[in-house]
Amino acid sequence: MTTGLPFLDLFALMVFAHALGDYPLQGEFLSRAKNRANPVPGVPWYQALAAHSIIQGGLVGLITGSLWLGLAETVVHALIDDAKCTGKLTFNQDQALHIACKLAWIAILIFLAGF
């Protein structure tokens, strides 16, 4: 299920991948287009949100070796980002929740490993 890396290394890689996915891999277009409260004309906000969330989930799946954690990240990332875009969360709350998810994925991996 995991890459064989120590859990702290997996967490660090997921945080790095999150920054990569939330900044350069998201870009200005997805950042604006995923916002249902202020959508880009002609671009379905849910498609942009899904694309960004799938990138994030794919990164978690690749790092952990778990399709299920990748899918969980995709869904939770979309929910968190939508809450931020609709004004229910601040930018810092959004980022803190994303990092908390990485800790949750590590906790699940630890549980599944029998520690």
UniProtKB/TrEMBL annotation:
One Pfam match: DUF3307
Q: Which UniProt keywords apply?
A: Membrane, Transmembrane, Transmembrane helix
User: In its keyword annotation, does this UniProt entry include Membrane?
Assistant: yes
User: Any stretches that span the bilayer, and where are they?
Assistant: 45-69, 96-114
This chain's protein is named: DUF3307 domain-containing protein
